[in-house]
Amino acid sequence: MVKLTQPDALNEKAEEERQESAVLTSFNELYIWSMLHHPCIHRLYGIGTIPGTSISFAAAEVINFDLMSYLEKHPDLTLVQKVRLMTDVARGMKLLHDKEFVHTNLKPKNILVSDNGNAMISDFSLARPFSEAADLSAEDGSRLLSLAYTSPERIEQWKSVKGLCSSSDMRSGIFPSDDVFSFGIVCAAVNLAAQAGPSSSRK
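^ thats the sequence. predicted structure below, dont judge the formating
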């Protein structure tokens, strides 16, 4: 798999701002991704740029399934096999936290499964070091959000930013416990998908 980024020069000022944001996001993602070497982390082979262009790329292992599409493709998985998938995710998350990074966006779409049934965490574009994540303002924290898999504390941040509740006594920042909560919701989604079939998948 090759991930490409290429600027669009239609609006020079907007493009300049977008490029700055994209470069920071890409650098952040690639830096964190390059620090994570584990069977339960999507493997990054290398990064580079195409000479003479502004195109950058990251080459990674090709994986055909995300978590829910794998479950749909293999509807007869045993409970033991499903638990093994989620154990893989937990192992990947432990490595991420041991390296002092928070994923911030753990959900089935960001969990890939190989043909041999090995689950691995992917997409580190929103990941943050512990220190940076803890210092995020409520507004910044609420942007890094997939509501269906989000902890109650982060939902309160989002509601506060939207003016739906008071900001008093509201926790700011994002923490490893938020990843753990997301992991629990992913486990519940896997269980619901197993009980009700493919149409129940929460992506």
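The chain has two domains: 2-60, 65-200.
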